[in-house]
């Protein structure tokens, strides 16, 4: 196995990106080498292991704060980022508790790496619970809202 040399400039850029975006961690992989930069209690830590040929299964790690039960009908975050409940500041939210929604309707926006990603409903139903607030950072797999 070849020795993995850490690109300090890349690590510094990733750490700066964490600060800019308010994310807790970021992972970068190229040619089976993975660099993960994570914040822990105000300290930025860096792990740069040589990755195995088989990538980890999505959602295999427990979310920060311990394993929590995801409610039935929950829509979870497909990525790490900052969630916005409206299209622009001061605009009404895309959905509210009690709203009847249709499949494909925009529920919220997740900003990741300065890209606004609309999260659309995978099914029709009624919004029963909204588990996030505007401008909140979210982790992959974190429950955002419940649709029944």
Description:
This protein is mainly beta. It has 2 domains: 8-47, no CATH class; 74-147, RNA polymerase II/Efflux pump adaptor protein, barrel-sandwich hybrid domain (OB fold (Dihydrolipoamide Acetyltransferase, E2P), Beta Barrel), CATH 2.40.50. It contains 1 helix and 11 strands; from the N terminus they run H-E-E-E-E-E-E-E-E-E-E-E. The protein has one helix at residues 8-21; strands at residues 25-30, 33-40, 43-47, 74-76, 81-84, 100-101, 106-112, 115-120, 125-130, 137-138, 143-147. It is elongated and about 55 Å long.
Q: Secondary-structure blueprint of this entry?
A:
Layout: H1 8-21, E1 25-30, E2 33-40, E3 43-47, E4 74-76, E5 81-84, E6 100-101, E7 106-112, E8 115-120, E9 125-130, E10 137-138, E11 143-147
Antiparallel strand pairs: 1-2, 2-3, 4-11, 5-7, 5-10, 6-9, 7-8, 9-11
Characteristic key phrases:
148 residues, 4-stranded antiparallel β-sheet, OB fold (Dihydrolipoamide Acetyltransferase, E2P), 1 helix, mainly beta, 11 strands, single chain
Summarize the structure.
The chain is mainly beta and 148 residues long. It has one helix at 8-21, and strands spanning 25-30, 33-40, 43-47, 74-76, 81-84, 100-101, 106-112, 115-120, 125-130, 137-138, 143-147. It has 1 helix and 11 strands.
